[in-house]
Design goal:
By secondary structure, the protein is an alpha/beta fold. It has helices spanning 11-22, 39-53, 72-84, 98-107, 131-137, 159-179, 186-192; strands at residues 2-3, 28-32, 58-63, 88-94, 113-119, 141-145. 42% of the residues lie in helices and 16% in strands.
């Protein structure tokens, strides 16, 4: 699972060599900015992103967040058209509240909204109150970003921070081993790092 966005300056270029060598093994996700969320803007942003990534297709393309200026019917229609054209397999949203998700789902008449990518980590569990149950009820996958924390979480100098950073390091090492073809199993890759999992976070 490799997630990027046009907002992340330079990230697509960094991913491009990995995409070139391992495209069929990657689940590739990108996001369009709300200021480009028109029919023409979404089509152009997707084409430009594909070019920077060096591929002809995404697995999921998301609207990064919703603003008052975005015409959601137009944006959803443009995303669905990308599926029709084979530019992406699925469409989704990011940072959508439950009522916004419901409206996007209502508008997506040809291709369903498959996921909502949202902030979720041990220091910010707000989605668990309403959004997570709503997504589960309507079969929309929740994809959490910043799972190891963001901002002031975890706090400096605490055991939770050290363990989260250790878990992140192990995860990156394991994924590197998988990407380099040394193993095709993540659990084997983790074992090869010499780490024990799961970590105690408290």
């Amino acid at each position: 699972h490799a997630a990027t966005a046009e907002l992340y300056t330079g990230a697509e270029s960094i991913l491009a060599p990995i995409v070139r060598d391992h495209r069929d093994a990657l689940f590739l996700v990108s996001k369009v900015l709300p200021e480009h969320a028109t029919s023409a803007g979404i089509a152009r942003a997707c084409e430009q992103g594909l070019a920077r990534l060096g591929t002809d297709r995404l697995d999921v393309y998301l609207l990064h967040w919703l603003t008052e200026e975005v015409s959601l019917p137009e944006a959803i229609g443009a995303l669905e058209k990308l599926v029709d054209q084979g530019k992406t397999r699925f469409i989704g949203v990011s940072n959508f509240e439950p009522h916004e998700l419901d409206e996007a789902r209502r508008l997506a008449t040809r291709h369903p909204i498959v996921c909502n990518q949202v902030l979720h980590h041990l220091g910010d569990r707000g989605i668990e109150n309403e959004l997570l149950p709503r997504c589960a009820a309507v079969n929309v996958a929740v994809v959490g970003y910043s799972p190891f924390g963001s901002g002031e979480f975890p706090p400096d100098g605490q055991r939770a921070r050290r363990n989260l950073l250790g878990l992140l390091a192990v995860s990156l090492l394991a994924c590197t081993r998988v990407a380099r073809g040394r193993t095709n199993r993540l659990d084997s890759a983790v074992s090869a790092t010499g780490a024990s999992m799961p970590f105690s976070l408290l």
